[in-house]
Amino acid sequence: MVKREKSIELLNQAVNDELMAVHQYMYFHFLLDDMGYDLLSTYFKRTAIEEMMHVELLAERILFLKGEVEMMQSHAVEKIHDVKAMLDKAEAMETQTIMDYNQFAQEASTALDSATKKLFEDLILQEERHQDQFDIEKDNLANYGDNYLALQSIEHAKKASVGTQMT
Ligand SMILES: [Fe+2]
Ligand SMILES: [Fe+2]
To answer: From the CA of 162, how far away is ligand 1's center (Å)?
Structure first.
């Protein structure tokens, strides 16, 4: 196996961005959970777990290429408390990742590493799904405003009452 330095570098950049996404989305998950916005809180948690699985796929490829996995996050977590600002941040992160992975796929192709190129292409499909979902949530918040947030609280109350019945 030829050590593919370029691919390893691209894959590690992606690991750093994915780790940042894991931390940022978990942070949003904790805050939204604390505010009682269950639906959105759960969505951020689920997305964070998916980003963690992306780290795993990238790390497996790095090790296959005989590289070292650099477990650093690209940026510090932004301490955002406003729901709309959280969704704006998340959508911007997904948009940036989609642009980066398109670029990385091309660079991997230029370096004649089709498997790494395909990995980035597979990840793009999932990031586009994330972006789309954050966009839908932003639309819902814009269209329904306080009602959207009230619905989240109703879900929280429903779960709380189910929990009471079970005990
Ligand atoms: Fe990801
Ligand atoms: Fe994502």
So the answer is: 34
